[in-house]
Amino acid sequence: MNRYIMYVVGIIATVIFAWLSSFRPDLLSLMFIGYIVIVFGATFLITGKSAARIVKDLEYIEKGQKLFTARRESVNKIKIMDPRLNEDLKTQGIMMILYFIPTIIIFALVFIPGFRDQFLSSVSSLILPYVGEKQTSLFFAYLTFYGMFYVISIGFNLFSRLFYRGKGVIMIPSEYVVTDRGIIIDKKTPLKFPLKGDIHLNESRKFVEIVVDSPQPGMQKVRYRFYTQQVKKLYEILREQLKGT
Question: Cα–Cα distance between 177 and 186 in angstroms, integer?
């Protein structure tokens, strides 16, 4: 789903939940359950289609001519010897933790005793003189309450996107196979040729890295890092299959 559509859906859901909370609280639980069912249903449908495509791509790549193979034992030995790997992953790990901060903040604020009621009462009192009706002021108070959480979530999401823009999330395969049709990563992730992106060779650290667009919404780039003793050979194979290099 396009991220802009997701933003619009989030705003609409915020308004609906605020209206129900203030005017029809008896329907709020039912609406919440319905929302969860719809979200999980859409996720299940998208996941199912994605899984079918992955299986199809894996079968397609496996039928190609094998050009390069890296086994788990060999990759792990080389990876351990990379002196800067921990530094690369540490920064990424911090960002992964920050990704969950909005959820932690939301749950903390919701379950702090009295916070929600005090917040709603204060905002409602401020708005009441302007709208002249208690129920309407309560609606705007709930809208502010839910909207605050939504803004926090979107803010961290955008911060994460800006952080990874141009850098990309590092993915390090434990084993991989390259054929003339694509790459199979850890026996479960296919990358079909040709790929559009950039390629980098690091002979001293013994890896070839390709930077391609992420198939996942919310991510700008993915950096697939392939460790091997035969870096030049792998580099030449992959360079021929990448566009925009």
Answer: 8
Indicate the SS3 state at residue 65. coil
pTM of the complete model beyond 0.90: no
| pLDDT tens track for 215-232 | 655 556 788 999 999 999
Task: Give the separation between CA 188 and CA 182, rounded to whole angstroms.
Answer: 13
CA distances from 126 to 111, 157, 190 (A): 23, 30, 56
Could you tell me which of 144, 135, 141, 143 has the C-alpha nearest to residue 23?
135
The pair of three-digit structure tokens given for residue 137, joined into one six-digit string? 């002021």
Residues 6 or more apart from 116 whose CB is under 8 A from it? 109, 110, 145
Q: Long-range contact list for 112-120, CB < 8 A, 24+ apart? A: 116/145, 119/145, 120/145
SS3 state of residue 2: coil
Please classify residue 127 by burial: count the beta carbons closer than 10 Å to its beta carbon, then call 0-12 exposed, 13-18 middle and 19+ buried.
buried
- Note whether 120 and 145 are within 8 A (CB): yes
Instruction: Give per-residue pLDDT as tens, 63-82.
Output: 999 999 999 999 999 999 99
